[in-house]
Amino acid sequence: MSTTLxxxxxxxxxxxxxxxxxxxxxxxxxxxxxxxxxxxxxLTPLFAAVPFVQSILSGVWLLPAxxxxxxxxxxxxALLAEMTAASVEALMGSHWSTGxxxxxxxxxxxxxxxVALFAWRRFGPAVAVLAGVLAAVLEGVYELFAYYAGAWTxxxxxxxxxxxxxxGALVAGLGGWALVRSLARxxxxxxxxxxxxxxx
Amino acid sequence: MPDLALRGLTVTTPAGRTLVRDVDLDVAxxxxxxxxGPSGAGKxxxxxxxxxxxxxxxxxxxxxxxxxxxxxxxxxxxxxxDPLDALVAETAGRDTAFxxxxxxxxxxxxxxxxxxxxxxxxxxxxxxxxxxxxSGGERQRLALAGTLAADPAVLLLDEPTSMxxxxxxxxxxxxxxxxxxxDRGLLVVDHDVAGWAxxxxxxxxxxxxxxxxxxxxxxxxxxxxxxTGDLWWPxxxxxxxxxxxxxxxTPALDPGGGDVLHGEGLGxxxxxxxxxxxxxxxxxxxxxxxxxxxxxxxxxxxSGAGKxSLLALLAGLAAPTSGRLLAAPALAGRRGRRxxxxxxxxxxxxxxxxxxxxxxxxxxxxxxxxxVAVTAIVLGRxxxxxxxxxxxxxxxxxxxxxxxRLSGGEQRRLALAGALAAGPALVVADEPTVGQDxxxxxxxxxxxxxxxxxxxAVAVGTHDGPLLGALGPRAGTAVRLHRGVPAExxx
Amino acid sequence: MPTTAAQRRxxxxxxxxxxxxxxxxLAVAVLCAAGAFAVRDWWQAAGALAVQALCLPLVVGDVRAxxxxxxxxxxxxxxxxxxxxxAGDSADPLWTALTAALRxxxxxxxxxxxxxxxxAAEVGDHLAQRLRVPGRVVVAVVVALGRLDALVDSWDxxxxxxxxxxxxxxRGPAGRVRWAASTSxxxxxxxxxxxxxxxxxxxxxxxxxxxxxxxxxxLPAPWRRADTVLLLAGTAVAAVPLLLRxxxxxxxxxS
Lengths: 200, 491, 255
Ligand SMILES: Nc1ncnc2c1ncn2[C@@H]1O[C@H](COP(=O)(O)OP(=O)(O)OP(=O)(O)O)[C@@H](O)[C@H]1O
Ligand SMILES: Nc1ncnc2c1ncn2[C@@H]1O[C@H](COP(=O)(O)OP(=O)(O)OP(=O)(O)O)[C@@H](O)[C@H]1O
Ligand SMILES: [Mg+2]
Ligand SMILES: [Mg+2]
Prior knowledge:
heterotrimer; A: mainly alpha; 66% helix; globular; B: alpha/beta; six-stranded mixed sheet; 18 strands; 30% helix; binds adenosine-5'-triphosphate; binds magnesium ion
């Protein structure tokens, strides 16, 4: 009589590691953003003359959602991670307080849409880029209306969203995908399919 | 309550390495069993398999039965090695309530269970205490209470006392034995066979090949069963430190004679950042320390006394908030800087090696080989020493493994190799012998002795009495801390 | 049974709002943010801000901490105002910019102060018991948030280890960016591995079990009178911009 003894893995049920990894990724990115705070604020004055392209930096805020989606590969993982990261910011006192929670939801949903288009089957760089772009466009539009009161001219608004989308594609999409690959190479993702695919 | 039976456990990695081979193990109700074995033998792997919590990328065959049936969730309670990973809530009461909450107990029942678990684990502080403010020993007991509150039939513990000073370790051990009582099974993994032998019914020993080499009562004092000489049996004296070839650890920068590092009136105030900033805490004050060339300086004290904090200062990882800490003039950095925390990263790396207390957080490379070579490569020094150190520490077989995959004891030895490989003149080691068997212990002790002999200044924070005994004759002036101040001041 | 977080807060000194539970705190913060969307003119924003300022003593306990929380808001308002001056197309760019900046303050201020009273575990208890959010998800997020301090410590450890191994920040901005990136990566690795270890410990205490569906909660999530009062008062404050706008429209149409 001999059975395998590994942790049980049901196909659609969220395991505890799935839940916790998504949430902890959110918190860890919260800490990373906090660690970068000084770096980021020191860059802001650079954009004083051209604030409408500042969104070129904003792709980093989408990373938790993209990374969680690529690692956990379950419906809702991106939303969970991004909402958790937003909660960290809200609790620590961010620029936008409750607004950051709404942003978290919007960004998470953007990424969820992209992976849903491929029925949670494909998680390559192309899907990651699409996820970054969708999340960036949704978030960019929301920011223009929520924070900038829609007071900019249309041209500048388009420019803002376009910069956001480029950043979402490069930083969140490709960057997130590369990040997951490096994480997998460390063996930290051994509990996930991503960890086995990128191995070695 | 049921008996636990493991039959034919074999665990293989994807690379085809067999970690554990055909292990049978029984724990009857009320029985107390110690699982021992050399570092890397596969003890932690067996515990995870028993709890049904093995990682997914290893292949495990075998069969676990609880009274002839499959165990339900929570029936086999595993207490993981680091209590910080075992604690899931912010306050003590809420943490212990986690198990009962999962079982769906009603509120009064939950809190009765919590009270009972706290009493059984001899957890001394209150229910409303924040987990983060507890000392190491208190945390360990709270983690035990949390496991008990889930009311497991069998209790599995992985090195529950390895980081504690002797009195606290004895207290936790007593709590464990008390809590297990005689109506559950108890299986403990520990290197300290001598400490547990009087209290357990059986000792099971895994050999280096991952198979059972001994299963029976603890041996008579002063003797070890055949083939298990690597273990710390009762009455077996500490081995003599390994004789390391002369010159292997000669510092790359000559510190000159005198003190490599000299500190007066050192104080450290730490502020905790985070969600809710806490008030600053004074963790050290008025500490004098001198680390002479070619001498070993022990740093001792109870859990939470400030050993690790002092060692971090000595290793240049934090700035003292009061007092002065200066290196020998021969070690001055650019613009004559002599305070270690003002050195650049490369300057620091060229002078100091640090073995952290929790090495698993601090690896910087993707393979064991690269981890040892990193510093030497950055500094343009010879990487041959690293290879020699891996060989001595029994890690060369694992050179291509990822550091995170190593067992607890292997990780600590790797951290030592990494710290020594670039030839530092100042070696700062925090609990370097935790989790080692007699064989690897002799190597670690031998390397520390060799660093001293070859002319480095070595500071060791430890509660390992035999280590200080074995390194005794060349010791510098010991620093003994009590709640952050020198013990003689505290007295 | 031990005290809930709201009871512990209530026992100490502080402004009235300390007696309130997390749900009305969150609700009012969100409502006030939504209310700001009604702002069209600078005087509407100014009026709303005046009402919010009147409520400050009910919300602010530690003035220094409050100022620290509001500092980023001040910067954000400046940046929004400035960018509107540059990118706006109205005839009156300065007034438009002022409106946008004030509106942002109206939007963010209540949340910035109210969210400071939240306790993650308490929010979890209330979300699960009052709003029926799935328990396993709530617990996972609360546990993850509880590890935040550990992760901050871990950042320090990772940074220290890299420094002593010779991989610390070099000189120049490029070296610093590279260092920040590699340290962040080390932190992420540590975080993911930590998540694995914690979920192991949680499963070992029965979190994975079939019974997780009928999970119980060790602490209650009461709704008290203070909560109703906060919700009503907060809704009124949130409605001020809308009232001003409607009132203003009424006045101009009658005159
Ligand atoms: N997932 C894995 N993949 C590859 N190797 C692994 C994995 N897990 C453990 N190992 C290896 O298996 C061996 C046994 O590890 P284990 O942690 O069980 O040892 P241990 O007896 O508990 O040692 P220690 O006393 O040092 O803690 C080690 O050499 C380790 O490197
Ligand atoms: N980052 C920190 N912020 C605030 N307090 C801290 C921090 N790190 C440690 N402490 C506190 O400082 C004291 C000394 O801790 P330290 O780790 O130096 O003790 P130790 O002697 O090494 O203990 P152990 O034997 O358990 O390793 C403890 O009370 C600890 O809680
Ligand atoms: Mg082990
Ligand atoms: Mg210590």
